[in-house]
Amino acid sequence: MVELAANKSNVIAIPFYIANAAASQSAVVLSMPGEATATDMGQMPIPWAGSIVGLSVAVEAARTAGTLTLNPTINGTATAQSVVIDDDPTTYNTAQYARGAYPITAGQRVGMKMTTDADWAAGTTPSVVGWVFVHIEEM
């Protein structure tokens, strides 16, 4: 049996990515590392109850125009949380949320979706990596 710490050491980071993030995209599923294309396999089932407590994004090339938004998903449905790349910041960004504000139950799947506006541009092949941070409440 694993005992959980009372601090933030119970947080896990789940990475997602998309290659060549194009303009005018709406709720595109990001892939898990090693997955060739985004599918419903772009979700990770969480074996314990917890909550989404943070998001991060990194863009391969700095944004030159438009906006990119990443939203975490629970069982494929995007949540209200988001992390954004726009005129500031242009390459990296983070967002934090209180524990318990966005709960997940044991067995639910966490994923990430991307939306870009018509002006989005960030170099010729703007690959994007996003992370969803989940605080595990119980085991």
How would you explain this protein's 3D organization?
The chain has one domain: Jelly Rolls, CATH 2.60.120. The protein is an all-beta fold. Strand 5 and strand 6 form a beta hairpin. The chain has strands at 11-18, 28-29, 43-45, 50-59, 68-74, 77-78, 83-85, 92-96, 103-104, 109-116, 128-136. 29% of the residues are buried. The protein contains no helices and eleven strands.
Question: What is the domain total for the residues?
Answer: 1
Poorly predicted spans = none
Q: Please give the CATH architecture.
A: Sandwich
Query: What is the CATH class name?
Result: Mainly Beta
**Beta fraction of the residues?**
35-45%
Fill in the CATH topology.
Jelly Rolls
Query: Total number of β-strand segments?
Result: 11
String of helices and strands: EEEEEEEEEEE
User: What is the overall number of helices?
Assistant: 0
Shape: globular
Mean pLDDT: 89
Structural class comes to mainly beta
Helical percent range?
A: under 10%
Mind summarizing the main beta sheet?
6 strands, antiparallel
Query: Radius of gyration, rounded?
Result: 15 Å
Query: Distance between termini?
Result: 8 Å
Question: Notable features of this structure?
Answer:
mainly beta, Jelly Rolls, six-stranded antiparallel sheet, five-stranded antiparallel sheet
